């Protein structure tokens, strides 16, 4: 019976320009072929093979149950495949090539833009010129490319290559499993690498560039601020215009440079060279005139100065006492004894020991003169809070690691983390990227003498030099020569 149907169909087709249909199909186009229940080939030279398959345009081909080829030269091959553009090709169950020259290959593959290509199950090339290759790969930006399982190129001219790679910025490129390039024209190269801002570049496994124009190269390297650069495993440039070069290097100060494995530069405009255990810091450039900055610093008082808002001046008597004389064989010897000493502890010149009022344990004729002696210590200390109020930053203070102060020609920050502790009364301060030192001073007097001063305790002698203080009853010169002259003749006992 089927042979009879075919022969009848062939006989009838001969009258319709050699078109052919069979199995309940309908071939109505010139030289068309339709095979299958309700198959339809209505385009000239078209072919429809499969139940309910449909080829509607010149040269179109639909093969597979429910397949449809709806435009000139289109090809649909597979169950429910659809080809709906000039010369479009859809191959695979439920595949769809829906624009001119588009290609969809794979179950549920979709090519929906002119010249778009989708290859792989559930792949999607959604715009003109897009290419998606791989299961679940997606290319939704114009001329974008997504290659790899679950790869996604989401913006125009973006490229994502690798499993789960994602390029979502315009012109962005992500290459590597799990890589992500979301910034405009950004590049992420390496597994889980991240290019997250405009013109950022990340190269290396787990590398990250999140600042505008930032660059990170090396495993787990990070450039997280504008124009920052990190080069080396675990290197980090986290401040504006910072540069870190070397494994584990860290540049966290703006405009800073850290060079060497583990080197760190945490101050603005700083340059660091070394390693994690030995860092050497060089000054950055100074904004403005460094000599003018130095000249604007308040001057430090000397021993005879007075308190200012920037410095305090204090004077204390460190030792004082009476002058004694001893006469033996017409020879006069002058000695001193401390106020605070008990008579038994008062050691005199020539090993003599004071043994009581105007007497000696090994001699007699000792006289307590009207001359007194003293030594003073004057301390000038900086008030660092006053400098801070003027806008100076304290870089280091007493007990901190000592910065190495640069010469006046260097004008910048320069210090070593390996040096000793800052001394008491000393501070290193910085302003406008210029560092200098402010420190206290101590002035110790030599032996000073007072003539004619009434005998009293030594704490009344507070002169900060050998010059007598105004208001203290000194009756003559305090110089040593005057004292010796006044003692050329022993005074009367008393």
Describe the structure.
The longest helix has 12 residues, at 2-13. Helix content is 6%, strand content 34%. It is built from four helices and 48 strands. Among the domains are: 313-380 and 451-486, no CATH class; 382-443, no CATH class. It is mainly β and 494 residues long. The protein has a 20-stranded mixed beta sheet. The chain has an 18-stranded parallel beta sheet, with no helix packed on it. Strands 39, 40, 43, 47 and 48 form a five-stranded antiparallel beta sheet that branches.
Number of strands: 48
Low-confidence stretches: 1-16, 284-288, 341-363, 405-418, 451-494
Q: Helical region count?
A: 4
**Beta-strand level of the residues, as a percent range?**
25-35%
Kindly state the percentage of residues in helix: under 10%
Radius of gyration: 49 Å
Describe the biggest sheet? 20 strands, mixed
Amino- and carboxy-terminal Cα gap: 163 Å
Task: Write out key terms for the chains shown.
494 residues; 18-stranded parallel sheet; mainly beta
Explain the layout of strands and helices.
Blueprint: H1 2-13, E1 20-22, E2 26-27, E3 33-35, E4 40-41, E5 47-49, E6 54-55, E7 61-63, E8 68-69, E9 75-77, E10 82-83, E11 89-91, E12 96-97, E13 103-105, E14 110-111, E15 117-119, E16 124-125, E17 131-133, E18 138-139, E19 145-147, E20 152-153, E21 159-161, E22 166-167, E23 173-175, E24 180-181, E25 187-189, E26 194-195, E27 201-203, E28 208-209, E29 215-217, E30 222-223, E31 229-231, E32 236-237, E33 243-245, E34 250-251, E35 257-259, E36 264-265, E37 271-274, E38 279-282, H2 290-295, E39 311-328, E40 331-338, E41 354-356, E42 359-360, E43 367-382, H3 384-389, E44 393-396, E45 426-431, E46 434-439, E47 441-444, E48 448-451, H4 480-486
């Amino acid at each position: 019976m089927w042979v009879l149907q075919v022969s009848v169909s062939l006989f009838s087709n001969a009258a319709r320009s050699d078109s052919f249909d069979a199995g309940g199909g309908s071939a109505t186009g010139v030289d068309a072929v339709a095979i299958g229940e309700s198959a339809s080939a209505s385009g000239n030279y078209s072919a429809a093979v499969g139940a309910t398959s449909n080829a509607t345009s010149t040269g179109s081909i639909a093969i597979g149950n429910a397949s449809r080829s709806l435009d000139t030269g289109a090809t649909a091959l597979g169950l429910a495949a659809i080809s709906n553009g000039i010369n479009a090709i859809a191959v695979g169950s439920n595949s769809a090539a829906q624009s001119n020259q588009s290609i969809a290959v794979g179950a549920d593959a979709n090519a929906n833009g002119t010249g778009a290509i989708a290859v792989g199950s559930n792949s999607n090339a959604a715009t003109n010129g897009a290419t998606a290759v791989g299961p679940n790969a997606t290319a939704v930006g114009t001329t974008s490319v997504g290659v790899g399982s679950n790869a996604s190129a989401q913006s125009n001219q973006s490229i994502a290559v690798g499993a789960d790679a994602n390029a979502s910025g315009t012109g962005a490129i992500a290459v590597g499993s799990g890589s992500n390039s979301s910034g405009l024209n950004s590049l992420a190269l390496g597994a889980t690498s991240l290019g997250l801002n405009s013109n950022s570049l990340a190269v290396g496994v787990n590398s990250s560039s999140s600042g505008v124009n930032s660059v990170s190269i090396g495993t787990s390297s990070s450039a997280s601020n504008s124009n920052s650069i990190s080069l080396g495993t675990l290197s980090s440039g986290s401040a504006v215009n910072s540069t870190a070069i070397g494994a584990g290097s860290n540049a966290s100060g703006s405009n800073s440079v850290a060079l060497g494995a583990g080197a760190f530069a945490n101050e603005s405009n700083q340059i660091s060279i070394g390693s994690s255990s030995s860092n050497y810091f060089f000054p950055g450039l100074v904004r403005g005139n460094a000599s003018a900055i130095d000249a604007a610093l308040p001057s430090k008082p000397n021993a005879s100065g007075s308190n200012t808002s920037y410095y305090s001046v204090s004077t204390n008597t460190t030792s004082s006492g009476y002058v004694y004389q001893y006469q033996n064989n017409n020879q006069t010897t002058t000695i001193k004894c401390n106020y605070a000493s008990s008579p038994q502890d008062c050691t005199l010149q020539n090993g003599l020991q004071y043994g009581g009022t105007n007497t000696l344990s090994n001699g007699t004729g000792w006289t307590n003169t009207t001359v007194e002696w003293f030594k003073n210590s004057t301390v000038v200390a900086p008030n660092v809070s006053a400098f801070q109020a003027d806008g100076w930053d304290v870089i280091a203070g007493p007990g901190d690691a000592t910065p190495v102060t640069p010469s006046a020609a260097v004008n910048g920050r320069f210090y070593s983390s390996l040096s000793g502790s800052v001394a008491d009364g000393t501070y290193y301060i910085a302003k406008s990227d210029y560092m200098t030192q402010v420190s206290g001073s101590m002035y110790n007097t030599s032996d000073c003498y007072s003539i004619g001063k009434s005998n009293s305790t030594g704490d009344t002698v507070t002169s900060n030099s050998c010059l007598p203080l105004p208001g203290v009853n000194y009756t003559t010169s305090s110089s040593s020569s005057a004292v010796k002259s006044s003692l050329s003749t022993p005074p009367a006992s008393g």
